[in-house]
Design goal:
With about 70 residues, the protein is α+β, with helices and mostly antiparallel strands. It has a single domain, classed as Multidrug-efflux Transporter Regulator, Chain: A, Domain 2. About 45% of the residues lie in helices and about 10% in strands. It has helices spanning about 5-10, 15-25, 45-60, and strands spanning about 35, 40. Strands 1-2 form a two-stranded antiparallel ribbon. Strand 1 and strand 2 (about 40) form a beta hairpin.
Length: about 70
């Protein structure tokens, strides 16, 4: 069953702005759009979600100047 962009962001734990930035920069492949009427929507498969999750593990919060997440005791 295809997922919406919002559902992917919730499942992976990132904001929509972060996902849109990754897609716009070309660092992550875009899913195929589906047209419904005159509008185009991205529908994500579970494979796409797994790729986003792996990309997040590799690159998220690795930029210069970012503070590490606080450890929960």
């Amino acid at each position: 069953m295809p997922l919406s962009t919002k559902e992917v962001c919730t499942a992976v734990g990132i904001s929509r702005a972060t996902l849109e930035r990754w897609l716009a920069s070309g660092r992550f492949p875009r899913p195929q759009p589906m047209k419904i009427g005159a509008k185009a929507f991205r529908y994500w498969t579970q494979r796409d979600v797994d790729r986003v999750r792996k990309f997040k593990e590799k690159f998220y919060r690795k930029g210069r100047g970012r503070k590490p997440k606080p450890k929960v005791a």
